């Protein structure tokens, strides 16, 4: 038997160090070639680290949240044969690092098909946890349990360290358990528990970027009300006519098209500002970042060359990128290079928001929810579908008048949707 040492790989783009976000294995696990061992976080994306060999894990080189240099020892695996550990190499400690005593916010990533995760085994109808005990589970699993009306503390977890998985919720439901199984008094039990969440991985990167953006850019926001009745009618008509063959359209592709058309007259909005070099770069290509919520936080996949896409082409790409981001599978290229960002909370969009710029961009357009309200049109009170655009700009680069005119241009395009397609 020998030892195969896997070092932190060179991920490219001049990256010298990365953050270890999550282990998918532990000491003593048997792994196969191409099985995902760990997730690491670069400045732009989460990256899976697969195993190049079959063997048994004998040592882990770090713990979640640790920043590791490229070339440092990531993991050691006992293999058949000589392995790749030289006699002169530094000894590898056959010891698993102490796991942090907090629940990390991470991307759930399943092993490769060659090493499928075993099906969950529920050894009993429920788990007798204390009322103040918080079981391990990802944010997605917690939301799923909430939607199903399941008290998570009653579910037996089959994942590492007893982590509750989606499959465990399904097994729990299959056994016919319900909220009625739990003592009613538990809902009113006094609680004195506390929870500390370690800020690592994507959440750390989001925190750093948001702090950097608010400290460096001179933010100002502008809110405008838009009557979207006509464009909603057009969207419904197109979906009825072409939805089956081309796919359903949401409002986002129309907003992307409105951005593209408006930017022809306001190229200063489609720009990046290098504040160190004091250089503004205006771009002809419109690469629209679409802010997307995932289990690990906000990510911004990029619809490249939106200026050259049809409504359905944009819709397909937005859907593809959103799914990749939510599943933690978006590549570095798909998460970088945007020139202007579109952010929307959908039905939860509220009345007004103040989006934070996605530096080095100088503009971000925020979409609020659509509501029906009585409006006066040609002297008559009628019900119209209304929506606010809450947008932010970098005042170091964009003047207030230009920002207002830009949003007014988008408003005109959306209220008269035929103008979106008139060249």
Describe this structure in words.
It is a single chain. The protein is of the alpha+beta class. The protein has helices at residues 139-148, 166-174, 201-216, 229-246, 252-263, 311-326, 400-415; strands at 2-7, 17-23, 30-31, 36-41, 46-50, 55-60, 67-69, 73-79, 219-227, 271-274, 279-282, 288-290, 292-294, 297-299, 302-303, 340-344, 363-377, 380-394. Mean pLDDT is 83; it is low at 87-125 and 177-182. A six-stranded mixed beta sheet has the order 9-18-17-16-12-15, with helices on one face. Strands 1-8-6-3 form a four-stranded antiparallel beta sheet, with no helix packed on it. A four-stranded antiparallel beta sheet has the order 5-4-2-7, with no helix packed on it. The protein is built from seven helices and 18 strands. The chain is globular, with a radius of gyration of 25 Å. Helix 5 packs across helix 6 and helix 5 crosses helix 7 (400-415). The longest helix has 18 residues, at 229-246. 23% of the residues lie in helices and 25% in strands.
């Amino acid at each position: 038997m020998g030892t195969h040492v896997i070092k932190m790989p060179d991920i490219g783009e001049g990256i010298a160090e990365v953050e270890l976000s999550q282990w998918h294995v532990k000491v003593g696990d048997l792994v196969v070639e191409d099985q995902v061992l760990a997730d690491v976080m670069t400045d732009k994306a989460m990256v899976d680290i697969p195993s190049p060999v079959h063997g048994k894990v004998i040592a882990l080189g770090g713990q979640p949240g640790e920043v590791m240099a490229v070339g440092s020892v990531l993991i050691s695996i006992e293999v058949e044969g000589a392995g790749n550990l030289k006699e002169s190499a530094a000894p590898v400690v056959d010891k698993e690092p102490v796991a942090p005593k907090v629940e990390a916010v991470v991307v759930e990533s399943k092993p490769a098909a060659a090493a499928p995760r075993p099906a969950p085994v529920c050894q009993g109808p429920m788990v007798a946890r204390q009322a103040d005990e918080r079981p391990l589970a990802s944010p997605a699993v917690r939301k799923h349990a909430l939607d199903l009306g399941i008290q998570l503390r009653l579910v037996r977890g089959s994942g590492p360290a007893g982590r509750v998985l989606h499959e465990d919720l399904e097994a729990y439901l299959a056994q016919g358990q319900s909220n009625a199984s739990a003592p009613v008094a538990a809902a009113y039990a006094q609680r004195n528990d506390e929870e500390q969440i370690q800020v690592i991985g994507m959440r750390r990167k989001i925190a750093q970027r948001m702090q950097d953006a608010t400290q460096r850019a001179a933010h100002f926001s502008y809110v405008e009300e838009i009557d979207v009745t006509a464009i909603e009618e057009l969207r419904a008509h197109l979906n009825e006519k072409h939805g089956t063959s081309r796919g359903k359209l949401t409002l986002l592709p129309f907003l992307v098209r409105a951005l593209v058309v408006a930017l022809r007259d306001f190229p200063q909005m489609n720009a990046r500002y290098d504040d160190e070099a004091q250089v503004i770069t205006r771009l002809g290509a419109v690469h629209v970042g679409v802010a997307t919520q995932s289990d690990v936080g906000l990510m911004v996949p990029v619809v490249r060359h939106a200026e050259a896409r049809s409504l359905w082409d944009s819709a397909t790409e937005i859907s593809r990128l959103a799914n990749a981001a939510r599943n933690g599978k978006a590549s570095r290229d798909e998460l970088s290079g945007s020139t202007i960002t579109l952010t929307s909370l959908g039905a939860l969009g509220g009345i007004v928001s103040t989006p934070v710029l996605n530096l080095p961009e100088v503009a971000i357009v925020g979409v609020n929810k659509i509501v029906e309200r009585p409006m006066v049109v040609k002297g008559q009170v009628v019900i119209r579908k209304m929506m606010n655009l809450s947008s932010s700009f970098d005042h170091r680069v964009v003047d207030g008048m230009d920002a207002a005119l830009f949003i007014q241009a988008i408003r005109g395009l959306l209220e008269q949707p035929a103008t979106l397609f008139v060249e």
